[in-house]
Design brief:
The protein is of the alpha+beta class. It has 23 helices and 28 strands. A hairpin with a 7-residue loop joins β5 and β6 (about 145-155). InterPro entries: Diguanylate_Cyclase (IPR050469), GAF-like_dom_sf (IPR029016), GGDEF_dom (IPR000160), Nucleotide_cyclase (IPR029787), Rev_trsase/Diguanyl_cyclase (IPR043128).
Length: about 775
């Protein structure tokens, strides 16, 4: 019966495997098709943006040239011809020409060619700026071109039309795509007329209607594609090419100008090339998988019994881990929980004794022991170092090594120094495991000895090590938080909470005498306002250190912003007064002022009376200080410091005004974040920074495109690549170059490593200065 069931299960698994393989293959093909379309869409959108940006950039450039030409008296002058002849191509444009009244065309070589009947000056002038349909070249009719017409105006009168010529034979050299290597086909279509403006697959430029003859896969339609192109919408299509005898997967995207549409296509065999290889490997693996299924059943029966035993053992261990973790959950607030956890720990290991040591460096902070016969015990020894005989064990544990020994003779071979001590205390076997904290350092040690069960490894101890380590961490954090609630974070003195606790403690105990020293730091508000809060903090810290050194850290408290209190228990009045005199002298030596009030009382002591009297005396001293010349003297000292700061600022402004004419821009640039701080910045570059969203490299590229002569703009590319620039900064020479702007002026750029150039703060200094050549 069992055998028949296994046969049926095997057959079912083989059938399921076949279905899975079929579904998997379909899924892989679908995923590959989706990935193909996503890649085509991404690259098509990129090309669309590139062509659109070039069109806008070309138009902007032509308008700029048109503005220059408008200033000339004669548009057929030598200067105008020089502008046309010096043009070396930009974006889609390959050359420029000027259409003059009378239907005369001024070429880049200075010729006047009649285009009457072909181009109408009045018609083009009336249309304003626009892009032409695909037309024949006026100078070479066998070539197809596009013409970007921009009127040249003088006032409101159109005196000429500037023609930006785009040679369609040259477009494939300007725009290309490698989404799928050399197999990618690129088309540029005029969605309104259907004329192809670029075709990298065919030699001649045809009409998009030629695609109507091609059949498509189910779910795609050529009519939909033509409709989308006319409406300027994006889409996908899969059509069959008789020439290539294969399907082509295509995506088209509107350019956004002149109703142009970009389309990328790739052959089906290229799309699924990787998928076919994957499926061959998949079928090959399926054969081995079926063989493995048969062997699996043989192995399964043998493992069922082992698995049952392992699950029972695992369940017991999980319960044990859960019990320990539950007990230790609030051990930081209830230290007695540690003892309960050790008892559960000892039971699980069948150990006679267990221990938990908390460690800091080579010092034992706290010892927890559990003995099955004697119960629990905890001893705190904050300065006890690891005993020398156990230093070898400690070194191994610190390297995250566990110790498991059942043969004490082996202990003598591995750790000879500790063998005698271990034997003397009656240890027959031993297990130890290090507790590691979040910084990968040892924070404690778990130990057990005289275990009744013979364990193969330390996993029974390891599975609860994290719980004990977290308990130690929680206790340390809890203690730290408690200390933070009792200490002032700025000065390190005890805070107001500690002060109230000390007052309550004094009221409950009988001291021979109690004195209170009440100190107020004078002038803190003025220092903060005039010299900054950092100077005020320095003053408060100085007062705190003075009180701590004079009366001790246990007796000094910061109870407010500028108020400090010292509580002197069993200190003579003369000694207290001597300390107060020392404080006043130290404050005066450092040009600080304070108001000090004190009161001292012997038994019977009323602590509230002592404190209020001291505070009252402090208020009197403070009133006398502000009524006297102390305040005026302090104000004069701060005024001197302010005058010095103002003078230094004025000196710096004079220096900057002298050197400013030599520079066009001085910037501190952080290469890690591409952010900038400027010393000098022209208005035009500030506008570029805003346009680039605060990215310095983008602003520099924009600067090179718009203001630098084209033959020099390529010099900026290496310095905008910060990886390449970093390699230059580590060389012997300072990176930089000389270039010419479009206005004819010559500039020099130099880049220096700044003193803060390190790590994530790679700050550099960029200096743009005038030069003669």
């Amino acid at each position: 019966m069992i055998r028949n069931k296994n046969i049926i299960i095997t057959i079912l698994m083989i059938a399921v495997l076949g279905i899975v393989l079929f579904c998997t293959s379909q899924k892989i093909y679908d995923l590959e098709k989706r990935a193909c379309f996503e890649t085509l869409e991404e690259h098509t959108e990129q090309l669309s943006r590139e062509i659109g940006n070039d069109y806008l950039s070309d138009t902007k450039y032509l308008k700029y040239i048109a503005g220059i030409l408008a200033s000339y008296d004669r548009l057929d002058s030598r200067e105008a011809v020089q502008i046309l002849s010096s043009f070396s191509g930009q974006g889609m444009l390959s050359r420029m020409e000027i259409l003059l009244p009378g239907d005369q065309l001024l070429t880049s070589d200075g010729r006047l060619v009649s285009v009457e009947g072909k181009l109408s000056f009045k018609e083009k002038a009336a249309q304003g700026q626009h892009m032409s349909e695909r037309i024949s070249d006026m100078l070479a009719p066998e070539q197809m071109i596009l013409c970007n017409f921009v009127p040249v105006k003088r006032g409101t009168e159109v005196i000429a039309v500037l023609c930006g010529i785009c040679d369609l034979d040259e477009l494939p050299k300007v725009y290309s795509d490698s989404a799928f290597g050399e197999n990618t086909q690129l088309y540029l279509v005029n969605g309104t007329t259907g004329n192809l403006l670029m075709d990298t697959w065919h030699k001649d430029l045809r009409h998009v209607s030629d695609f109507k003859k091609r059949r498509t896969k189910k779910g795609y339609s050529m009519d939909t594609m033509f409709s989308d192109m006319e409406k300027g919408k994006s889409g996908r299509v899969v059509f069959f090419s008789e020439k290539a005898h294969t399907y082509f997967y295509s995506h088209y995207e509107p350019v956004g100008v002149a109703n142009w549409v970009v389309m990328l296509s790739v052959p089906e065999k290229v799309v699924f090339a990787k998928t076919d290889q994957i499926m061959k490997i998949t079928y090959f693996l399926a054969i081995f998988l079926m063989i493995g299924i048969t062997l699996y059943f043989i192995w399964l029966l043998r493992e069922l019994k082992k698995e049952k035993c392992a699950k029972e053992s695992q369940l017991t261990r999980v319960q044990y881990m859960f019990d320990v973790e539950k007990i230790l959950f609030d051990a930081h607030m209830k230290p007695g929980q540690i003892e309960k956890a050790l008892e559960r720990f000892a039971r699980a290991l069948t150990a006679e004794r267990v221990c938990l040591l908390t460690i800091q460096g080579h010092t034992i902070l706290q010892n927890y022991f559990y003995d099955r016969q004697k119960g629990t015990d905890a001893k705190i020894s904050p300065s006890r170092r690891i005993p020398e005989p156990f230093s070898g064990m400690f070194a191994d544990l610190a390297q995250n090594k566990s110790i498991l020994l059942y043969d004490m003779d082996e202990l003598g071979q591995t750790y000879p120094e500790s063998q005698k001590i271990v034997r003397r205390v009656g240890i027959r076997n031993l297990m130890m495991f290090p507790l590691i904290d979040h910084e990968n350092g040892m924070t404690g040690i778990l130990g057990a000895c005289n275990m009744e069960h013979r364990w193969k490894d330390t996993s029974q101890m390891e599975c609860v090590s994290l719980s004990f380590a977290m308990a130690i961490r929680n206790m340390q954090v809890y203690q730290g938080i408690r200390e933070m609630g009792l200490m002032d974070s700025l000065t390190g003195l005890q805070n107001r909470n500690s002060y109230h606790a000390a007052v309550a403690e004094i009221s409950k105990n009988k001291y021979q005498s109690v004195g209170c020293v009440y100190v107020d730091a004078n002038g803190l508000h003025e220092i903060n306002n005039h010299l900054g809060h950092e100077a005020g903090d320095q003053m408060l810290c100085f007062v705190a250190r003075t009180l701590e050194d004079t009366f001790g850290a246990d007796n000094a408290y910061r109870i407010g912003g500028d108020e400090f209190v010292v509580l002197c228990r069993n200190v003579g009045e003369a000694d207290m007064q001597k300390g107060i005199d020392g404080i006043s002298k130290a404050m005066s030596d450092h040009q600080y002022a304070s108001s000090v009030g004190c009161f001292w009382q012997e038994q019977p002591i009323e602590i509230d009376t002592v404190i209020k009297a001291a505070e009252k005396n402090m208020q009197k001293a403070k009133k006398q200080y502000y009524q006297g010349e102390g305040r005026d003297r302090r104000s004069r000292e701060m005024n001197v410091q302010l005058e010095q700061m103002i003078t230094e600022k004025q000196d710096a402004d004079v220096f900057l005004s002298i050197i400013a004419p030599e520079f066009k821009g001085v910037y501190f640039v952080n290469l890690s974040t591409d952010t900038v701080r400027h010393i000098f910045i022209p208005d035009y570059f500030e506008a570029m920074m805003k346009k680039s969203g605060g990215k310095f490299s983008e602003a520099i590229r924009l600067y090179a495109r718009e203001l630098v002569k084209p033959e020099f703009s390529s010099l900026f590319q290496p310095v905008c690549d910060y990886r390449e620039l970093e390699s230059q900064l580590y060389g012997r020479d300072v990176p930089g170059f000389v270039y010419q702007k479009k206005d004819g002026s010559w500039m020099k750029l130099r880049i220096f490593k700044f003193k803060k150039y390190a790590g994530q703060n790679k700050e550099t200094l960029w200096v743009f200065e005038n030069t003669s050549s």
